[in-house]
Design goal:
The chain is built from two helices and seven strands, in the order ααβββββββ. The chain has two domains: 30 residues; 94 residues, Immunoglobulin-like (Sandwich). The strands form two sheets. It has a four-stranded antiparallel sheet, with no helix packed on it. Strands 3-4-5 form a three-stranded antiparallel sheet, with no helix packed on it. The chain is an alpha+beta fold. Helices cover 14% and strands 33% of the residues. It comes from Bradyrhizobium ottawaense. This is Molecular chaperone IbpA. Keywords: Stress response. Pfam families: HSP20.
């Protein structure tokens, strides 16, 4: 079931992104192909594993744009075959992953029928916490400010 957010759009201001995220979550829940896993390798490294049995690297494109990673597959049927049972999907697909800020794609490779996408969170130096020195008067030492005698 798909929910229509239109009535809420009319009565809210500044929640555009929230409704876009809710719509995306709902749309993603409805998509089921290709199956995938998202794994945390350590605090700042992640891996997306996508089951792509029967696809070659030439039939798959991976695009990173802003905070969205898009995976598309276009299966090229080379010849007409007669199947008695067809359980391996060869359909075209498009799956998108929303990446958090400062998460970058470091590489991708095919391994044992899986597309493995390596991700790394790299927080810029300017955004990392840093210790600030506090300057002040050293205890026991009094500093007099210039003054005129009355």
């Amino acid at each position: 079931m798909r929910y229509d957010w239109t009535p809420l759009w009319r009565s809210t201001i500044g929640f555009d992104r929230l409704f876009n995220v809710l719509d995306e979550v709902q749309r993603t829940a409805e998509e089921s192909f290709p199956p995938y896993n998202i794994e945390r390798l350590d605090e700042n490294r992640f891996q997306i594993s996508v089951a792509l049995a029967g696809y070659t690297p030439d039939e798959v494109t991976l695009t990173a744009e802003q905070n969205v990673l898009t995976l598309e597959g276009k299966k090229a049927e080379k010849e007409e075959k007669t199947f008695l049972h067809r359980g391996i999907s060869t359909r075209n697909f498009k799956r998108q992953f929303t990446l958090a800020d400062h998460v970058e794609v470091k590489g991708a490779r095919f391994e044992d029928g899986l597309l493995l996408v390596e991700l790394q969170r790299e927080i810029p130096e300017a955004m990392k916490p840093r210790r600030i020195a506090i300057n002040g008067i050293t205890p026991g030492k009094v500093t007099q400010i210039e003054s005129k005698a009355a």
